[in-house]
């Protein structure tokens, strides 16, 4: 152990303590660590007495658990040691059992301990601190008009959500939410009337402190929610300002998905022997087990059309689409290819517009929400069935991927997360898979039959939900329409056509839907695979089918049509190729086959692995040649002269005598 005498000695004229700190070696006294691994069904609270006795003398007690955090525990709400009023509010919200993070935090917070909590996205961290704080306020009563609880949130949406949880759990608890983008006057009036809980964003809290509207001298509990996100958004200075004006001896609760250095330093300065509740022992287990993760390979030019099909086929009552830019969000929200009602959410929309969009999405008025990452953190929208990430997060940012996909599969419900990627995004996608510790399922874009079936199913459901009085009101018009179509009251096939037309229109289709190629996603094209029937007896024969050979084979096979077939993209590989063929020509090829009997043709619904590999190699080669082409456009001469181009402005040889080795090589030519 390093003693104070040893640290006062000098090395190279400097104190040992200074040298060690410069080398990044800690000179703090070694602290004893303690960990508790719960056993049995109850993940923590059931063993709290044993935990308290064991951790009474520990500096940094810790609860670590690998129990499933996205399913409720076995302990019912009725058995909790909380007031009947709070139990009734939980039952009114439909909560019968607490999730592990909620159960583990309940007793420590009620006892006034400082807590650092980590849990996966969507496991109920908000109720984990709101429930015990509401219980304490209702038990102790409002002792003054000054707030006793301060909750700091990184975003306006998350602050509004937390305020709603406090109001739902304790209607008698006076709560106010302060955030930027809204008027100061209502917030100032609420603070003057007296308040129990203040929920706010760092910037607006500092503004109220500077204006003298907010007095934090009576704060007994401070909650730092999503502390790592506040650091990422650049709120470290505001957070330090807020923490300096809080009274000493307060209770501090820190909830964070990750624990960066700023969070650690904050806990050392502002917390007293905090209890760490870590339900994310392994970083690769941060994704909820209730979410199905899908990867979908798309062409950049067809991304918008494929999104419309994916939302039609796989989207349920609510779907969220995450896009990288605000411009793309506006374009997609107004796109005619997305057939359901859609709202948009991004940083340029004012607070009133955000609240209207979120309220409409929660109520079911809008089926789809297109948003930038402003909605990825903390917004808890129930029953989101599908999350679509319009592109792979920049540089394979796993935290962004986790928080986007975490908007579905919350509170034990199942959900689906689909990420669009191109061949160029393959490396970023692999980094995400490695970081989350799971392999994403590979899906193909929905085909024409899937889109029509899903659209008709939604329309049928809508028709079945039509109120009977409304149906009766339209019966005379329907009768007149059918009589106009059939000329009589005896309805046969025209009735089916009329119903078919109604289904098509109600599904959002205004013109016939064309089949789309799975290779290039071009309308009215079909992807065909040419494959060798068997191994050839000629060893010298090439097994690579070049694009020129593919074009020649297709043209010879349909020569009797007296027209040149329309071909699209061709991807060749050993023993086969995939080619885009115009739909009418493709059907003839499928019926009659290829003129060369050594090859067979078939329609494919998914790309062969060899074709995907060839596309990736071609993309990498394109990127490499683009990089070489930036230096004067002399790739061949660069290779010839060892990477330097004679007499070029970048070589520095102009006006000088050429080196002997250059003249010699030119003479050899």
Structure description:
Strands 3-4-11-5-10-9-6-8-7 form a 9-stranded parallel sheet, sandwiched between helices. The protein has a 7-stranded parallel sheet with strand order 14-15-13-16-17-12-18, with helices on both faces. A 4-stranded antiparallel sheet has the order 20-21-19-22. It is an alpha/beta fold. The chain contains 25 helices and 22 strands. Helix 16 links the parallel strand 16 (386-389) and strand 17. Residues 1-7, 26-59 and 630-669 have low confidence and may be disordered. It has 5 domains: 1-30, no CATH class; 40-281, 3-Layer(aba) Sandwich (Rossmann fold); 291-449, P-loop containing nucleotide triphosphate hydrolases (Rossmann fold, 3-Layer(aba) Sandwich), CATH 3.40.50.300; 514-534 and 543-630, 2-Layer Sandwich (Alpha-Beta Plaits), CATH 3.30.70.1800; 633-669, no CATH class.
Q: What is the secondary structure topology, with strand pairs?
A:
Blueprint: H1 4-8, E1 10-11, E2 14-15, H2 16-22, E3 33-36, H3 48-55, E4 60-64, H4 84-92, H5 100-110, E5 115-118, H6 125-140, E6 149-152, H7 156-169, E7 175-178, H8 184-193, E8 197-200, H9 202-211, E9 221-225, H10 227-232, H11 236-245, E10 251-255, H12 261-270, E11 275-278, E12 291-297, H13 303-314, E13 319-322, H14 326-333, E14 342-345, H15 351-363, E15 368-371, E16 386-389, H16 398-405, E17 415-421, H17 426-436, E18 441-443, H18 448-464, H19 468-486, H20 493-506, E19 525-532, H21 547-557, E20 567-573, E21 576-582, H22 583-592, E22 599-603, H23 609-629, H24 635-640, H25 660-668
Parallel strand pairs: 3-4, 4-11, 5-10, 5-11, 6-8, 6-9, 7-8, 9-10, 12-17, 12-18, 13-15, 13-16, 14-15, 16-17
Antiparallel strand pairs: 1-2, 19-21, 19-22, 20-21
Helix pairs in contact: 5-6, 6-7, 9-11, 13-18
